[in-house]
Amino acid sequence: MLKDFYDIDTEPIVDLAAFYGKPKEITEKCLVIFSKEIHDYLLEKYTCENIGTITACNGNTPIYLIEYKGEKIAFYLTGIGAAIASATCYEIHWQTGATKFIMFGSCGSLDADATTGKFIVPTKSYRGEGTSFYYAPANDYIDIKTADRLAEIFQELNVPHVKGSVWTTDSMLRETKGLVAKRKSEGCIAVEMELSGVQALCDFYGLTLYDFLEAGDVLSDSGYEIEGLKDANHSLGKLFIALEIALRI
Prior knowledge:
This protein is α/β, with parallel strands linked by helices and 249 residues long. It is 33% helix and 32% strand. Helix 3 (82-96) packs parallel to helix 7. The radius of gyration is 18 Å and the shape is globular.
């Protein structure tokens, strides 16, 4: 069934031009932000220009532009989950011209020994969501093409990090002990909810995605540890790393 989702033989029916008009070319780089606290920090501390809006019946998402060390960088607060995060990414591209996206958020650790005190640079992601199968042929994993370059940037910045496979899921409530064990046996060190879908969309449309994660909660056979989740969600360190990445890509 999943093999039926990827149709490149017929044209899509929905056209973003019907919603937003012609594509715009404002800036090349964009931050994909999951934390409202980080988003609001940017609005408070920087001069931000509203350059567009993602419209929806349940509320709109403004798109902003800042200048950081001479570089113009767009940013927006994305929704959680592969379906909404991927679609919004392409709508942002349409409205801004951005082709390089830096996405950073929190994740659950599957290997605390490997991830504690380090940012995670995903190398591939298990496709445990549905979105990616519309943008790429059916397969278990999708490669994260920029992982090597991103790891180089982390080395340049002297920021502790670890490279490894991750698991993208559509439902954190169904991260069962059996599924956690399977993903760990395949080498996955973390679980999150967007990467494989956003990567597949970016590959399909010729966009470039740079993704890194900060582990908060821990999933293990002995139980579930949530103590580090708030800091991982909202720590400003990720923001300044993302801004420095934007200068280097």
